[in-house]
Structure prediction request, 507 residues.
Amino acid sequence: MAKHSNSIPFAAVSVDGDSKVPLYRQLYENLRQAILTGQLAPGTRLPSTREVAAELQLSRNTVMNAFEQLLAEGYVEGHVGSGTFVSQALPDELLTARAGVRRAFRPRRGRRSVSRRGELLATTPVRACCPAVGGVVPFRTGTPALDAFPFDVWHKITARHWRRPQRDLLGYGDPAGHRPLREAIAAYLGAARAVRCRPEQVIVVAGTQQAVDLVARVLLDPGDSVWVEDYGYLAARGALTAAEARLVPVPVDEEGIDVSAGARLCADARLAYVSPSHQYPLGVTLSLGRRLALLEWASRTGAWVVEDDYDSEFRYSGRPLAAMQGLDEEGRVIYLGTFSKVLFPSLRMGYMVVPEDMVEAFTAARALVGWCSPVIDQSIVADFIGEGHFARHIRRMRALYAERQRAVVAAARRELAGLLEVGAAAAGMHLTGWLPEGVDDAAASRAAVARGVQTQPLSAFALERHYRRGGLLLGYAAYNEREIREGVRKLGAILRDVVRGSRRKAS
Ligand SMILES: Cc1ncc(COP(=O)(O)O)c(C=O)c1O
Prediction:
């Protein structure tokens, strides 16, 4: 047994008087590490607290506190004052486990190993967002008008809930969702979207993102083929990829997803993921003929159709097309809706409507991934809908977004002629602008972001196909008219340089 009193590697002990960490804690950490890495072997006698204090120029109290802590945790044994030894009984597993952890933390060969599934999760892109520009900067897509949200009403309902919270709102809720909210959603969807469902078929989830994840878990096996729109929504595609689905990119034209092309490419796909009301990102509406063709294909092959109805509330002209779910006679459609656009994204609340015979499986899966959405928030949303605020808010936002869209189109006509072709759209919260042929939209987006305008390139949403012309997405819902005018003016100056540079390169 080594028993020498200068056993502590004093030179390696670093104690910083300027640190916010107490001195005794720093000394304790140093000694603990020396024990765990074997620098101080079991049985080693530590110098007296007086010697350590003198050597490190610390107060004796500081050293005593560090020793007491090591003693309390079993790293050393003996009696402070009469000789302190590194514990013999220090379990080997502790030493090897700790040493192992320390070794693994060192980035010796890049990242630590994760499972194959973990690798997929870690490397699958979720968003094609351009890097965020700080502040309220146009033209991010997908964000509603937070400046026009009725916070006073929201606050009243929230305060009422929290003043005397009902017990059942604070416990573990029903994984399928809070019953009054499911009833409110079913009634709303029936009236506004011609969705045919009973409240039992509504499952409350943490947004569309979780819904797609659940769809993949419940309906797909690894390697199953899935039609996805090309260009299409990256976050949904990410969830499907991470579930090891084989994505089949199906082209989109002015009538929406090309169903016969899908059938040619992969007739026996298990599922089709579509955004019929307002295709993301191109903004087209799936025609009635294509809807019927899609349902007919699903019925013939036994495939599922996932209908992402993310912003259907915002239609400004023409007759709103009812949800495809309402046309489905065979229970092949899984309908997805979200409160991210009509309320706000950080609420993380959405819903799915599943066929009756799928309710049990989806509810069980929902329980497995997080149990349920926060029950008190569900109750707040249920009251917000039930008291008429939801319908009023949607009506107000529909008018506001129509104005904001008009502001973008008018400003674009003034500032972007020959640079970005921006036409009015019948629905949604963003516009698609087309660049002149030959101009790289990714480069244009990078240039815009660098100069403080957020706009995503259309090509970022491509899987296989690329349109002849590049484009930029202009989200407008979240910005007032002044911000829109200023954003378009800035974008004009940026695109003038980009287009000029691109032509110079081509000539
Ligand atoms: C196509 C599409 N679906 C759904 C959503 C909503 O996703 P979530 O409900 O997860 O916020 C968005 C939001 O940007 C979207 O663009």
In short: Residues 1-5, 96-108 have pLDDT under 50 and may be disordered. The longest strand covers residues 246-253.
